[in-house]
Specification:
Largest sheet: 5 strands, parallel
CATH class: Alpha Beta
CATH superfamily: P-loop containing nucleotide triphosphate hydrolases
Strand order of the largest sheet: 2-5-1-6-7
Radius of gyration: 16 Å
Shape: globular
Number of strands: 7
Strand content: 15-25%
Structural class: alpha/beta
Helix content: 40-55%
Bound molecules: cytidine-5'-diphosphate
CATH topology: Rossmann fold
Length: 214
């Protein structure tokens, strides 16, 4: 199993970098945040109250979930036969996803999908706890960061209404698998780097540990 783990706060560049890195390396790209967003979207669709964890636990037990790879090499997740896409970036999902992701049964559900995907192909997986909890044994761990101001600007220029400070606070202070720099992770400040600049740095680091494009 080969996993390149990329973690970091909101708008640090994880998805853009992971997509490009996966293409460069010939790996598949697995966006774990999209999985937490998809579960959140389904919970909102069922009109459940996200402050009642028992309701969410029960809904998770009933959910039929499967994931796989599209032809482009990106992961997808299907929930109760639906394949959410742009719905995942809505204000409602942005506002609720960190609460939903703090629930242990939700994390177990996503983690089992991630392990299943990693058994099928070499992957670049991005999220908050990929290097610390989901694949702690991978030697290929990166943590992307950028100043709060730059991350706010980036999200705003994507045209999204997203209170990233609030999500970052919830994500880094929760009991289960909080956002943190995993032991052994290479920290990259992306504030003043281009996306290709970040990818170049990661490819160089991987080459030093003997991992080369397929
Ligand atoms: O793209 P952005 O960094 O804004 O968020 P995302 O990666 O789509 O993740 C959305 C939310 O899912 C995060 O704010 C976390 O609450 C949760 N998440 C998590 O708890 N663990 C992960 N491995 C990935 C995402
Ligand atoms: O996945 P995450 O929320 O960490 O970040 P993203 O969605 O990949 O990046 C947020 C925005 O910042 C995107 O529009 C990227 O193109 C941009 N970005 C950038 O311009 N330069 C970087 N070094 C990293 C991200």
């Amino acid at each position: 199993m080969t996993v390149i783990a990329i973690d970091g706060p909101a708008a640090s560049g994880k998805s853009s970098v992971a997509t490009r890195l996966a293409r460069r390396m010939g790996f598949a790209h697995v966006n774990s945040g999209a999985m937490y967003r998809a579960v959140t979207w389904e919970i909102l669709r069922q009109q459940l109250d996200i402050v009642l964890p028992e309701q969410i636990e029960a809904a998770v037990q009933r959910m039929s979930v499967d994931s796989g790879f599209s032809e482009s090499g990106d992961s997808f997740i299907r929930i109760n036969s639906e394949l959410p896409d742009i719905e995942l970036q809505t204000l409602e999902v942005n506002q609720s996803v960190s609460s939903v992701a703090s629930i242990a049964s939700v994390r177990n559900l996503v983690n089992s999908q991630l392990h299943n995907l990693a058994r099928q192909r070499p992957i670049v997986s991005e999220g908050r706890d990929i290097g610390s909890v989901v694949f702690p044994d991978t030697p290929h761990k990166f943590y992307l960061d950028a100043t709060p101001e730059i991350r706010r600007q980036r999200r705003a220029s994507q045209g999204q209404d997203d209170a990233i400070e609030q999500r970052d606070l919830l994500d880094s202070t929760r009991a289960h698998a909080p956002l943190k720099v995993a032991s052994g992770a290479h920290v990259i400040d992306t504030s003043h780097l281009t996306l290709e600049g970040v990818v170049d740095k990661i490819v160089e680091t991987l080459a030093l540990s003997g991992l080369h494009p397929a």
